[in-house]
């Protein structure tokens, strides 16, 4: 029964880590207080996600060497201090260092540990178990977006950074002590027939076409998702003319879809293959973009953004489950750390492109043409590289 306690503990940790998805709540207040534009207000968010990806790749190499709970504690300190110190800055460039580098790096150190531990405690249902745990990352805005909005209205954005940082510091460190690898004699029958019988090292993985196909597909999926999450609130206020508080409440709704996408697509990846689950996610992106281009009203906004948030959750389950299916369990921590660099690249381009398009055209509407093209490109790449037998 011990393994089941890791699920709620992991969800809470990921809720703390996933508060970055509530960044759009901070953007308008920071733009007004610091007199900056949309591109500048996206810098801390962009750097956070980039450092998140880089440190995720690096920390994967140490999970086997050091205790998982020690790594979580180190990362938790980075997360907490990153948020707290951001509360003392009055400059977007300094905030890019405190929030982006320190906070994002801390999240990167912690992120891979719970799912690496969970995958060993649940060998018979890896995709589903990992999907449930990381659903906390997507579920985070359901709790943190209205909480952040409430605190900002009372104390302002800077004091809110301090309050949230202290909460994250305590919760991550305490819950992290629960995470330990099972002993070697822990045996659960593996019923997942999709898992390959081979275990490729990172060096061997990098020689396969499936790695590059998965990396590109993951990059496209996260580029779309992180771009949209970072501008959900501004789009609601600009295109749909919604009240900021109402938009914050809708972000909580979208967070539910983000969370649901993880166990749903983790299960689908196990059951129907990485190829089919990937194509399904891109079809949802295309449908969402068409909805927003045809008619951008409250109904289409809710429908399209629910699907787009679900899509990001989908890729944060498809990618780790596919890494095990394609390359095996033995070197999973290192292998997924490398695959996860696609997340950082997607974050950088997603934030830059959304800000540039908004500043050039004066509207976020043009982003949906870009999403339409990305969805079509993703289907093509998935079909070419994620099939059972990839061309040589």
* Structural class assignment: mainly alpha
CATH topology: Growth Hormone, Chain: A
Number of strands: 0
Regions with pLDDT < 50 over 5+ consecutive residues?
Answer: 187-196
The tally of structural domains comes to 1
Looking at the overall shape, the CATH architecture is: Up-down Bundle
Q: Can you write the helix and strand succession as a string? A: HHHHHHHHHHHHHHHH
Number of helices: 16
Which descriptors would you attach to this protein?
globular, mainly alpha, 392 residues, 0% strand, Growth Hormone, Chain: A, 16 helices
What can you tell me about this protein's structure?
The chain contains 16 helices and no strands. The chain is mostly helical and 392 residues long. It has one domain: MFS general substrate transporter like domains (Growth Hormone, Chain: A, Up-down Bundle), CATH 1.20.1250. It is globular and about 55 Å long. The N and C termini lie far apart (46 Å).
Q: What's the short story on this structure?
A:
The protein has 392 residues and is mostly helical. It is 79% helix and 0% strand. The longest helix is centred in the first third of the chain and has 30 residues, at 92-121.
Topology overview:
Blueprint: H1 2-17, H2 23-34, H3 38-41, H4 43-59, H5 68-86, H6 92-121, H7 126-155, H8 157-176, H9 202-205, H10 209-238, H11 244-272, H12 274-294, H13 298-327, H14 332-339, H15 341-361, H16 367-385
Helix pairs in contact: 1-6, 1-7, 1-8, 2-7, 2-10, 4-6, 4-14, 4-15, 5-6, 5-8, 6-7, 7-8, 7-11, 7-13, 10-11, 10-13, 10-15, 10-16, 11-12, 11-13, 12-13, 12-16, 13-14
